[in-house]
Specification:
Radius of gyration: 22 Å
Low-confidence stretches: none
Bound molecules: 5'-deoxyadenosine, iron/sulfur cluster
Shape: globular
Structural class: alpha/beta
Helix content: 25-40%
Length: 436
């Protein structure tokens, strides 16, 4: 009789990457994937805890899965990812039916844990944060049909920005060996993947063996040589570690996409200091200018937070001013949210929720205009698009430009994974519309 698994993935790309690892192990153990939890034998929820909202969403989903288990006691329910790492055994106290708490660095142990979970019906809490990321599985056929994929190159963060939970739940920085990364990339190319996004909490600190000279630009240069790899992207970069050498890669490597996600967080030096970000607004602006000098068409996107403790109206205005000056291609923006155990949680001068909401909508309104303005400049231009599939609207295809803009277009004769030249007819805030 066939056995089924269901994985729900929340949060960032690293979780998506980890979920693929878990799924490959389950497929190897003869489980079949399912898109819904109702008839699954194993349910895993891969969770995020970067903001309070993400945590609430994950725990409410877990609650629903636990109620499924009450009706079906043979079901195995597990929680993975950042909440699992943060809360550990507390989760079993709160949800006694839960079978597995799998911390972020324990992913590689899932194969060994499966037997204990399924046959012995043990309850397992695995949260060792000092383990190294596992070697890739590279299961033949698993990635077939995908045109783009993620590859983790490093994990963890040593920066301890004062608001951030990541260093606590993803551990210290560890880089993966370059030969493993190359092997994984080659495997993905053999399965039809044309574009990879290199992942890490801070890819700029990638280094193979401390003190070695094989750093992130070295890795990019090696990967860019791989035959069949049309596009390389990476995320996320910390501004304080963005070196001139890395910037020069944008001018040098043809398959490195002209897009960088460079989280700014705030435009006031006082707030940047309180956040422990290690750069000033002037330094950030200098990086933007250097990037645009090396690659004038580079798209720059960012993360910004409003309502950090002690953020005055003047501080907030400085953020808006910098956003106006830089003109990001797009921006993810968030209301500051207290995370347990971080330095910011204990800071004085918390901003009321209503004020945070008002600042957020003001900022989003500003950015909407900027994004539209930048997108409008592309009207009439021809962009190279990697075809990713049929668009939500009937009769249209969808894909992304090298600058990571979503482009929908009409054409009768398109193939998944193909590169096409699309002429942009109309620009919107979230996408572009064109034709071949
Ligand atoms: N509150 C709000 N936003 C946060 N981020 C990280 N921690 C918090 C927090 N405590 C945002 C940052 C980061 C993005 C992934 O999430 O902007 O870049
Ligand atoms: Fe969090 Fe800062 Fe590390 Fe990014 S660099 S993961 S914001 S601590």
């Amino acid at each position: 009789m066939s056995r089924y698994f269901y994985i729900s993935t929340m949060g960032c790309q690293m979780n998506e990457y980890d979920s693929d690892y878990l799924a490959q192990v389950l497929v190897n153990a003869n489980y079949l994937p399912m898109d819904t939890p109702d008839n699954a034998d194993i349910i895993l929820i891969n969770t995020c805890t970067v903001r309070a909202k993400a945590e609430q969403k994950a725990l409410s989903l877990l609650g629903r899965m636990i109620s499924l288990k009450r009706r079906k006691p043979d079901l195995v329910v597990g929680i993975a990812g950042c909440i699992a790492q943060q809360e550990g055994a507390h989760l079993i106290e709160r949800f006694p039916e839960l079978d597995l708490v799998l911390g972020t660095r324990e992913i590689g142990n899932i194969e060994a844990l499966l037997e204990r979970l399924v046959s012995n019906r043990e309850k397992i809490v695995a949260t060792d944060i000092d383990l190294r990321p596992p070697s890739p599985i590279c299961k033949d056929g698993y990635f077939r049909g995908r045109v783009k994929s993620y590859i983790s190159i490093m994990e963890g963060c040593d920066n301890f920005c004062s608001y951030c939970i990541v260093p606590y739940v993803r551990g210290r920085e560890v880089s993966r060996p370059p030969d493993e990364i190359l092997r994984e990339t080659q495997h993905l190319i053999s399965q039809g993947v044309k574009e990879v996004t290199l992942l890490g909490q801070n890819v700029n600190s990638y280094v193979w063996r401390t003190g070695d000279t094989f750093n992130f630009p070295s890795l990019l240069r090696e990967l860019s040589q791989l035959h069949g790899l049309a596009r390389i992207r990476f995320t996320t970069s910390h501004p304080k570690d963005l070196s001139d050498d890395l910037i020069s890669c944008f001018g040098e490597l043809e398959n490195l996409c002209p897009h960088i996600h460079l989280p700014l967080q705030a435009g006031s030096n006082k707030i940047l200091d309180l956040m422990n970000r290690g750069y000033s607004r002037e330094k950030y602006m200098e990086l933007v200018l250097k990037l645009r000098q090396v690659r004038p068409d580079v798209a720059i996107t960012s993360d910004v937070m409003v309502g950090f403790p002690q953020e005055s109206h003047e501080d907030f205005e400085l953020t808006l001013e910098l956003i106006r000056e830089i003109e990001f291609d797009s921006l993810y923006s968030f209301k500051y949210s207290d995370r347990k155990g971080t330095l910011a949680e204990k800071m004085v001068g918390k901003i009321p929720e209503a004020e945070k909401s008002s600042r957020l909508s003001q900022l989003q309104q500003l950015q909407k205009g900027i994004t539209l303005k930048r997108n409008k400049r592309l009207e009439g231009r021809e962009l190279e698009i990697l075809v990713e599939g049929a668009s939500k609207k009937g009769g249209q295809w969808t894909g992304r430009s090298t600058t990571n803009k979503i482009v929908n277009f009409t054409n009768n004769n398109c193939k998944l994974g193909e590169f096409v030249k699309v002429k942009i007819k109309r620009a919107f805030v979230n996408s572009l519309l064109g034709y071949i």
